[in-house]
Automatic annotation (TrEMBL):
Belongs to the metallo-dependent hydrolases superfamily. The lineage of its organism: Bacteria, Bacillati, Actinomycetota, Actinomycetes, Kitasatosporales. This is Amidohydrolase family protein. Gene3D superfamilies: Metal-dependent hydrolases. Residues 4-275 form the Amidohydrolase-related domain. SUPFAM superfamilies: Metallo-dependent hydrolases. Pfam families: Amidohydro_2.
Length: 275
């Protein structure tokens, strides 16, 4: 089967700062596609989806060019300002750039927005409608308390596919399951929602996590979304704060049943992102 890593990043600090990375962090250095290639090959990854990291307009064209250059990258989830009046024109412009055919989705750092209802603002909704009209999907990077707004947004835009990154960042380190479980199930009840099995090792205790710490959360999303709406993402290189690339993939396989692997590790991402 084709194995897809549906969520990873790259960055070059000489091009721009990644101000979300703390000083002294092991990942406060460059991570390039050339760094990823041997990791992906060793893990048996065939294709990937490259996901935005910062909210600047220059990054998405750079990522599209990388996808044009590297066969490993089959899709890009980029960023644009959803609130700009000409967002539809901007999405069309991005599609015309070198590598523009690899633009598959848009993401914004909603987790950093102080307004928990940010997704429901009229100007944001207008932008999300443009994303849907362009045939793209929308990745949700949110915190647990923002899940109810995600559900309202997805319910109001049934023609747009929403992809929840990192399970909505549940409090794995504390072991708490509620209200995250109830809120996640409400989102999963909508047919236009999908979830990434990603980001778990860094939401747990990075130094001491075990597969048993992760299993209750993986079980919830597998039950709620099912394997046809669940896809694997490594979250490389952020995952390296807690585990090596191959270990993240192996852990995800151990958390899911072999009969589901073809969908979770390939088919769902291929279909949702039109890879």
């Amino acid at each position: 089967m084709t194995v897809v890593d549906a969520h990873h990043h790259v960055w070059d600090l000489s091009v721009r700062d990644q101000d979300w990375i703390a000083d002294g962090s092991p990942i406060r250095r460059d991570f390039t596609v050339k760094d990823l290639l041997p990791e992906a090959r060793a893990a048996g990854i065939d294709r990937t989806v490259l996901v935005q990291t910062v909210t600047v307009p220059e990054e998405t064209p750079e990522f599209l060019a990388l996808a044009d250059e590297h066969a490993l990258i089959a899709g890009v989830v980029g960023w644009t300002d959803l609130t700009r009046a000409d967002v539809a024109d901007e999405l069309a412009r991005l599609r015309e750039l070198p590598g523009g055919r690899y633009l598959k989705g848009i993401r914004h750092q909603v987790q950093g927005e102080p307004d928990p209802q940010w997704l429901l603002r009229p100007d944001v909704r207008r932008g999300l409608t443009a994303v849907a009209d362009a045939g793209l999907v929308y990745d949700l990077v949110v915190l647990p308390h923002q899940l109810p707004a995600c559900t309202k947004a997805a319910a109001g835009l049934p023609h747009l596919t929403f992809v929840l990154d990192h399970l909505g960042k549940p409090p794995i380190a504390s072991g708490a399951l509620e209200p995250w479980t109830s809120d996640l199930r409400a989102l999963a009840a909508l047919p236009n929602t999908v979830c990434k099995l990603s980001g778990m090792v860094t939401e747990a205790d990075p130094a001491s996590w075990t597969i048993d710490d992760l299993r209750p959360y993986a079980d919830v999303v597998l039950e709620a979304f099912g394997p046809d709406r669940l896809m694997f993402g490594s979250d490389w290189p952020v995952c390296t704060l807690a585990a090596a690339y191959g270990d993240v993939l192996d852990t995800a396989r151990r958390l899911t049943g072999p009969s589901d692997h073809a969908r979770i590790f390939g088919a769902t991402a291929t279909r949702v992102y039109d890879l």
